[in-house]
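Repro case for the chain-ordering regression, as requested:
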Amino acid sequence: MAEQDGAADAVLDEPAPRRSGTGRAVALARLLHQECGHLLQLYRERESFLDDHTPEGGRIVSLSPDTLGDDPGVEERVGLLHAALRQCLGLLHCLTLREVEEEMGELEGEYEAMRKNVRSRLEHLLLSTRVLLPQPGEAEVTPDNPCTEEVDGEMGSFALKMWTYRVLLELLHWADHASLTLHVIHTQSQETEEV
Amino acid sequence: MATHMPDRGFSHIRKLKSHNVWLICMLLSLSATHTHCTDALDVPQGVVLSADRSTQQLSISWLGGAAITFDLIILRTEFNETVFYETVTAPQENGMHHWTWTSYEPLECTSRSVRLRSRDGQKTSDWSDTRILEGMDHPNKKDSMMYPQDPVVLAGQHTTVCCIVEEGKDFGSIRYNSTVMNVTRLSRRSYVTTKFNQAPSRETGTNVICYSGMKMMLTGTVIFVGYPPLPTGLECETRDLTSVLCQWSPRNTHLYGRRATLNTLNGRDCGKTNQNQRLAECRLPEWAGNWTLVAKNALGQSSLNYSAQLTHRVHPVAPANLTAIPHAWNATLQWDWDYPTYDLLALICQVEITSDGHTKTRTFSGVGLRSVALLDLFPVVEYNVRVSCGAQQHFWKWGTWSKTQVKTGIDVPEAPALWVSRDEDNTGKVMWKPLTQRQSHGEITGYELTLWSPEDKVQHTETVLPGINEHPINLTHMATAGKVIATVKAKNAAGVSPPASVVIPQLLSDVEPPTVSRVVGADGGFSLSWASDANASNGYVVEWRDASCLHRCPVSWTQVGAGTTNVSIAPDTLQAGVLYSISLYSCSPHASALLQRWEGYMQELVPLRSVPNLMTNQDNSDIQLTWREIRLADRRGYLLGYRVYLNMGPQLKLIAKLSDPLSRSYTVKNLPVSSYKFTVKAYTSAGEDSGSTTSITMESYTDWLLLEMLVSLGTMTCFLFLVFFICYKKRKWVKKAFYPDIPEPKVTGDWSRTQGPLDVKPHANSMVHIVEESGWDSSKEKLVVIPEEDEDEEQGVRDEPVDTDEPMTIRYYNQVVDERPIRPRYPDSSESSSSSLDSARTDVTYTGIQTSGSSLNFQAEPPFPHDGQQPPPPQGDFPVALAGGAGGYRPQVQPAAPGQDPGQAAPPQSFPEPLPAKEGSFGCYQPQCSWQMDSPGEGDEGSIEAPSMGSPTSVASTQFLLPREEEERSEGEGSSSATTWLHNLLSSTKS
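-- result from build under test --
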């Protein structure tokens, strides 16, 4: 993990002309994945009953398989990833609102600091993936979630904790997915450049 | 509306269960009897159930006719367990009867059935239809649920929660945080537990989780345990003289977020209390005079009141734009106020000035005060200044601090303190104290030193760099007769300081030295006092230096004011164990005169080094110890004397204590001749040094030795004379006793010859024949050894080996006086010896069988018993001749004991003394015959085969037997001469 972290930092520290867009996105995705893992760990420490719990239900953020063909191109894959990350940002935004409402976010602990970190990193990753899209100007980097389901006030504290846990798992999943996808795209782009 | 509080205990429920059947039967029988006997009561109709799940209350309303008392029974529907059965009074209101029942567990936990009947005394109606309040464990609700959700509970109270298990799953446990709780089953899918005496929750509440039998989490709830609000310390004040700010200390309710305490001040919302705040505050735009704070949360509310006038609660804000205008010795502070209302407010301001860790506070007052002057500052000093103000009238509290920094300007330095120290010659040094920051008033750029002789009108000026605080001077060419004035000025960027002048004092050798007093250090320093001197118009200077230092010595000094006649020299300028010479000078514009001198140690120590050159000198039986003086620098204290020790092994024995420190010697008397080691230690009040040690080995006293020798010689001489005199007087008796007349022998033939000893070299064949045969010749059983010496002599031979290195000859004396016939002599051989031994009467006797060392050693063997036992094995250094058996002198071996096997080698045995030899012996004299080795080489001790036995000689002689040759030799020539002389004397007497 430390080695991976060091590699990501090295990429981010490269001068802009030498750093490709995909390389920067890969590095950001790896950092995001690492920080999402840390955030989940901190939440588990706070709510110890979640330690061995595997939530039921599918993904919160889901992409229709119809949107992907048999052999999607780079643009399609980046576009889907970008959309998923926007939903993740929306979930994180809703989560923050609910926790602040519960005054959990008012606390200034390590968990709250890491949550802010993850949000900032996710926004940067969205910006980085947007430039990889064929028409960057049309892509949004704002949260794609109205929080209608979660912030209607009917959700109990226990349900909120369970939902928060699912959201954090979702963030971790999509950060990992982004890291892998962008790495493949980056590798392919490098091979193409070499050819 | 009638209300009945529920039975809060499960024990009561169980009791109801046990009496359930019995009660129902009784009531039914009574009811039937009553019905048949009286008018029927109306059966309650239209029973309606209404649940308030937050309060766990069940409201029951019905139409009951004229009856006002009813029997009410509530059961858990699924298990048909009675949880409530009582006769209740419920008067009719608006045509309906009402009753409210509070459930012990949440109403969602399970379904309840309710029935009623009217009662009038003993008369009862029929039971109403059963009304059921469905719980969340109804089969049509299949999910797992836990109730209540997010309850807010007072700390210390209890909470009952139930878990409804999902259809088709098994119940496992309920955990309160991590504690597994005891549960009670309410229905097929519902389980309930109660947590008593709950502790306050953490920020995110207390988790209660329901697990399945497979330990899978089914559902859960969060309980928020806390306290009702209890604000304290409400205070309201104004900072802008218009609005009001009220503050109070909130209680930590352990409830956060939407459950946190909501505050209102005079009905205006002040928001929720942040639990992280130590002080909660609320602002109102105008001063009200009276305020009421209401704090409220889910567990209760609390209120506080406060009243005050505005002018009595002024808390000024911090001065704005605080600036300073610095000067060299003062500064001006200026500031503004954020609110114009302050212009008319009488203020009191405190200014705190801090420099070098020291803080001074000054206060100023005035209406609308916004400027003050700070005096008594020092040049070129950085000050930290902060200002705070309060209302001068009806002071409430100091306002907020505002701070700034002030650095004052530069000014000319002060005159440095000056002194001139003289050495023994015309040299010396001008010294001045370095100026402190407070005295320099800026960075010192240098010093200007001037030597001026008023009489000679000679002036000499030098510039000294900064950081140097002394300068050497030579007065050889200046005012040898008159006085010289030294002047020093310090310089900085602002200018030159006033001059500091001192008249150079005269040399100590030029003035009459005052008496030196001894001063004792106290508290690590010296406290000096003196009589006031009228000439000390410029005060005094006290100068001290190391008294053991002779040239170019470091000097310390201090100035004392004219009116002061005492001073304490601080210990930081002094060292322990150093003798300081202290001089007091009076200073005036015209002279610097030496007034008084002291010397002393700040602290005495043991001497650094022991006495040098410790020497010893023996004077007969006395030993004188001498040493030299310890150097002054090494004394480290006033010497009180010396202690002389005698080293006795590792310990020292004190033999003298010399209390005179000037002692340089000590004599230890009457010592026996031996080796001695002495240690001399000097001591001060702090103790004695490690000591010097010297050793001496005494020699014998020469005169006593000579005296002893003379006395011994005189005594011996007297004794000899006495013996000689007695012998002379008794010479006849001596002759008769020791030298009787012997008849002359009768000799046939011509035996005349020249008298004297005849030395015959023994022939080689005269040696004892060494028998090579190992067998024992029985014919030689009679062979005996004729000893040549008497027993004493033989014993002496046994005790110590004979030196056979001397050349040996056999000496025959021809002055034979024996009358017996002389048997013809055969050449020396073993055979001849044997034949002579075989004869019945022996005329020839061995008179001098001179044996070698090895032979004598053989004789020295201790005798063994003749019982046939084998002798012990030979010792390590036993003679070789004994070990061989066959290599010994066969003829000298004693025959074996009778009966012993002849063929067996005879063990070595001692040689008995033969009688003939005994009869013929004379005391300690040996026969006159002897023989000597032909050459020293043949008599080598290491050779066993060396000839060591003489041939037989005649003993038919009555000559006076000479003493043993060894004895003669040991006594020396003198003894031999004396014997000759005695012989001659006796001969002369005989004749």
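Ordering looks correct now. Chain A has a mean pLDDT of 81.
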